């Protein structure tokens, strides 16, 4: 019998990645896919771990979490249906699910901010200088406008929003991409600041358009955001090509999502299911992300 089980979803950044690290707003939402952490009494003593990839780092994060909750003698398994290392927030989902599960085992009724702070500590082990957007979405499980250091503001959607998420190619580490952007910033801070500021403006325009259900306007902000990410050197030929194909398929807009340098793209459609079927028939890995209208 398990002592605790907790789920946290992956995420997509609809607008604003990287600029969010520098204090500009971002727009991000949860996926259906995510990570489940299950904790059972240990059969062998100590803390043991069952999971697939990145074993040593995951094990380190797991031990850190167990220590911070003063829990020992447990077996933990980390499972899920979220593609890892493609910009869909798997490390944040692991961090949030671990913290929720260990809080249950330790029988601590923590306030949301306490859980968020502990999840961010774990997330920093993966990413170094994470803005916090990923684990806030994993925690809130809502589409939010997020500014670093603050709680996310849920959007008030006038209609359901559907996107295609297309996993295009493998990707390097988020930490490296964030450091690369930092190096560029240090070389020419005026240029980088201008780009971040433009991204921040797109996020605010995008939030307004999405809340009003203006898909065409929102799609335009996605396309412009992709161009600005290209200027930051974060896209790749395959990501650009995927965005172009999605636009030709009738997307209102398309962009890379997450840290870039590979990974996934997202595209806004009225009805995303047929597009996912089309991509699936071509052997591509794609799925739908959907956010319901607010009540
Ligand atoms: C990674 O999902 C998003 C980045 O903006 C980094 C961060 O905000 O922590 C690239």
Annotation keywords:
single chain; alpha+beta; four-stranded antiparallel beta sheet; 25% strand; binds (R)-mevalonate
Please outline what is shown here.
This protein has 295 residues and is α+β, with helices and mostly antiparallel strands.
Task: Tell me what you see in this structure.
By secondary structure, this protein is α+β, with helices and mostly antiparallel strands. The protein is 44% helix and 25% strand. Strands 1, 2, 3, 4, 5 and 6 form a 6-stranded mixed beta sheet that branches. Helix 1 (55-68) links the parallel strand 3 (47-50) and strand 4. Helix 1 packs parallel to helix 2, helix 1 runs antiparallel to helix 3 and helix 2 crosses helix 3 (112-127). The chain is globular. It starts with a strand and ends with a strand. The protein binds (R)-mevalonate.
How would the global form be characterised?
Answer: globular
Strand content: 25-35%
Largest sheet, in brief, is: 6 strands, mixed
Order of helices and strands: EEEHEHHHEEEHHHHEEHE
Distance between the termini: 38 Å
């Amino acid at each position: 019998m398990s002592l605790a089980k907790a789920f946290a979803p992956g995420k997509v950044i609809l607008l604003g990645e990287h600029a969010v690290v520098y204090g500009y707003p971002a727009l991000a939402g949860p996926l259906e896919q995510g990570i489940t952490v299950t904790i059972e009494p240990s059969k062998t003593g100590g803390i043991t771990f069952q999971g697939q990839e990145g074993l040593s780092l995951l094990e380190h994060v797991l031990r850190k979490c167990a220590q911070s909750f003063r829990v020992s003698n447990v077996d933990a398994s980390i499972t899920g249906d979220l593609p890892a290392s493609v910009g869909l927030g798997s490390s944040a989902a692991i961090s949030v699910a671990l913290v929720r599960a260990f809080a249950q085992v330790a029988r601590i009724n923590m306030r949301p901010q306490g859980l968020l702070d502990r999840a961010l500590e774990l997330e920093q082990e993966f990413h170094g200088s994470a803005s916090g957007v990923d684990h806030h979405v994993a925690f809130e499980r809502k589409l939010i406008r997020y500014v670093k250091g603050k709680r996310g503001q849920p959007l008030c959607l006038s209609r359901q929003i559907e996107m295609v998420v297309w996993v295009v190619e493998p990707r390097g580490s988020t930490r490296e991409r964030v450091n690369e952007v930092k190096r560029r910033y240090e070389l020419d801070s005026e240029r980088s600041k201008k780009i971040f500021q433009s991204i921040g403006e797109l996020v605010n325009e995008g939030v307004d358009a999405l809340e009003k259900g203006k898909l065409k306007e929102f799609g335009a902000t996605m396309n412009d955001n992709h161009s600005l990410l290209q200027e930051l050197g974060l896209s790749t030929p395959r990501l650009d090509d995927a965005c172009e194909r999605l636009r030709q398929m009738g997307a209102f807009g398309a962009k890379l999502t997450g840290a870039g340098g590979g990974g996934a793209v997202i595209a806004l459609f009225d009805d995303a299911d047929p597009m996912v079927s089309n991509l699936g028939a071509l052997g591509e890995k794609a799925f739908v992300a959907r956010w319901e209208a607010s009540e």
